Design the sequence.
């Protein structure tokens, strides 16, 4: 379903080239929960952004459902991303001037999701945020903000969720809650790829991929 | 989520950035509107003063002795009446409201009288204007105050002048000048009375205000040069007036304005551009996540350009109101004669509503392109 073929990514800097990903090949089945683990600077985020169609690899291909996403035009790739992929980031990245329902509703206009507002309300209810609907992100706790970001990622019914250190700023209780929601999405057939350097997500993962210095060191099944 | 709502919410959230941009555009529009509105009033004022002064150019035969001219008040020499039509047939002259006159001193019923014949005004080609002087019908006269007083005359009286009957249509009020001993009649009637058919001794005219645009040249030199080409046997006397001084002052102010306005425009352009660039930097993460959610370059650019247009529209309305308010508040003190003529120039509002948003969009164009060009992956990776 998702295939990375010898994906390399080189950042060109004044001090020379930095190889963030070095010929990474990976195959992820539909409905898998994959944890990508590695130390800081190992290329985890670069890998996630490349899978998400946000960062063109210097070499290699990213094929999702048979489509080489970097062969698409910028516009088509953006549309593909909006329809198929949901993002969750460590810093939540909520739009500060929109209230919670508007933040969740934000991706709906890109894919003309007509039931977007109803879906957003439903998601907020499921994530216990109904009472916070009209609040601004600055008025929420970190856990509530991340739940809002998850609701936003779920809105367009994506097939893949890409989460970059989604619990990095949360206490263990909230972290468990967030992974619980991601696991629920996974149980419903969605594919989840979580990038983290911690082990909290391991209990939900089907597979753990280790990255070091941009290379995939091992990919192990989680028993 | 509509673009309009996103723009509105962002404006409400980052009030300071918006307010500072708004202040700049309001200042620019208000400055322009107030100057233009008072400038128009100044123009009206000058025209009104000029009209009140009356015809300020006197074209007389070249051989006229000026000492005698100033003593008697008119030239003892004459020129053909056709001169006025010859002058009127030339385009591009700085003369307007051409009026042929014939004046002569006579003794009538024991009084010294200045008989003054006045022809209807002649307009230059393409310069048809309402007459500035009175028009006298043949067989009628206007009679000066002293003659009225001594002879006990009234409107409607029929009097005999050198064997011809005339009806008095107006007894003039006291002027304290030679006009008090004048009898005004239609030019051809007076020519007949003075036995000077087809002769005139003066063409009165109004100096066209446009001439003071040639500030580097003396007005009189220009007038003389023009006259020499058309009527070489005549000369011109210019009654210097407060109107031309005022017009020069207005043009000088316009010149300063023309110098200052581009500086104001450039400063405003830069100011709004810098504020927009700060806004782009502040919204890096927001741009990054929007791109991740699938928002295209056009929509991102629209967020910034749309905000600029909104700033311009609001700025145009407020700037117009403030500029007009300033003109209405302080204009009447400056232009006392035409205070009532200082009115809101609503045409400027329409222009402001077009120009200010366009100006703001232009200022924000580079920052908007910078926002579009930002690599969302880089932003999200950095964050």
Sequence:
């Amino acid at each position: 379903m998702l295939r990375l073929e010898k994906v390399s990514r080189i950042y060109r800097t004044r001090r020379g080239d930095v190889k963030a990903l070095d010929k990474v090949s990976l195959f992820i089945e539909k409905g898998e929960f994959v944890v990508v683990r590695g130390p800081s600077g190992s290329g985890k985020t670069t890998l996630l952004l490349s899978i998400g169609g946000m960062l063109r690899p210097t070499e290699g291909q990213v094929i999702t459902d048979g489509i080489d996403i970097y062969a698409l035009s910028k516009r088509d790739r953006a549309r593909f991303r909006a329809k198929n992929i949901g993002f969750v980031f460590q810093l939540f990245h909520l739009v500060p001037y929109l209230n919670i329902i508007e933040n969740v509703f934000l991706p709906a206009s890109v894919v003309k999701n007509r039931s977007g507002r109803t879906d957003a309300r439903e998601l907020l209810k499921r994530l216990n945020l109904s009472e916070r609907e009209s609040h601004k992100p600055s008025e929420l706790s970190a856990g509530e903000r991340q739940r809002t970001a998850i609701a936003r990622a779920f809105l367009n019914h994506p097939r893949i969720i890409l989460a970059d250190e989604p619990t990095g700023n949360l206490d263990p209780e909230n972290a468990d809650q967030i992974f619980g929601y991601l696991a629920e999405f996974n149980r419903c057939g969605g594919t989840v790829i979580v990038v983290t350097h911690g082990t909290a997500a391991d209990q939900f993962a089907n597979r753990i991929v280790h990255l070091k210095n941009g290379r995939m060191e091992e990919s192990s099944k989680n028993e | 989520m509509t673009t309009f709502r996103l723009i509105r919410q962002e404006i409400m959230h980052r009030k300071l950035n918006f307010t500072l941009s708004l202040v700049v555009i309001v200042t620019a529009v208000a400055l322009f509107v107030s100057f233009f509105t008072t400038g128009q009033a100044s123009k009206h004022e000058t025209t009104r003063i000029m009209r009140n002064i009356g015809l300020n150019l006197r074209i007389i035969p070249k051989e006229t002795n000026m000492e005698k001219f100033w003593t008697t008040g008119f030239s003892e020499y004459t020129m053909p009446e056709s001169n006025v039509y010859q002058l009127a047939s030339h385009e591009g002259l700085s003369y307007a409201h051409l009026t042929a006159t014939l004046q002569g001193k006579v003794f009538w019923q024991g009084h010294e009288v200045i008989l003054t014949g006045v022809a209807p005004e002649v307009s230059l080609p393409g310069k048809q204007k309402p007459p500035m002087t009175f028009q006298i019908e043949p067989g009628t006269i206007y009679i000066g105050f002293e003659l009225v007083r001594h002879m006990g005359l009234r409107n409607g009286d029929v009097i005999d002048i050198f064997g011809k009957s005339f009806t008095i249509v107006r007894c003039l009020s006291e002027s304290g000048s030679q006009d008090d001993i004048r009898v005004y009649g239609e030019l051809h009637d007076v020519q007949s009375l003075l036995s000077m058919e087809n002769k005139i001794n003066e063409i009165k005219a109004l100096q066209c205000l446009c001439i003071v645009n040639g500030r580097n040249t003396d007005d009189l030199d220009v007038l003389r040069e023009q006259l020499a080409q058309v009527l070489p046997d005549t000369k011109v006397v210019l009654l210097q007036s407060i109107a031309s001084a005022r017009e020069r002052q207005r043009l000088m102010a316009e010149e300063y304005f023309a110098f200052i306005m581009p500086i104001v425009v450039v400063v405003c352009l830069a100011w709004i551009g810098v504020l927009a660039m700060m806004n782009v930097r502040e919204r890096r993460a927001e741009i990054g996540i929007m791109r991740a959610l699938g928002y295209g370059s056009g929509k991102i650019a629209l967020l910034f350009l749309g905000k600029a247009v909104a700033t311009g529209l609001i700025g145009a309305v407020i700037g117009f109101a403030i500029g007009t308010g300033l003109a209405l508040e302080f204009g009447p003190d400056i232009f006392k004669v035409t205070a009532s003529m200082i009115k809101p120039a609503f045409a400027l509002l329409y222009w402001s509503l077009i120009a200010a948003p366009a100006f703001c969009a232009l200022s924000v164009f580079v920052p908007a392109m910078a926002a579009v060009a930002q690599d969302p992956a880089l932003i999200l990776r950095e964050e």
About this structure: Chain B has two domains: 3-47+246-382, 57-238. Chain B has twelve helices and eleven strands.
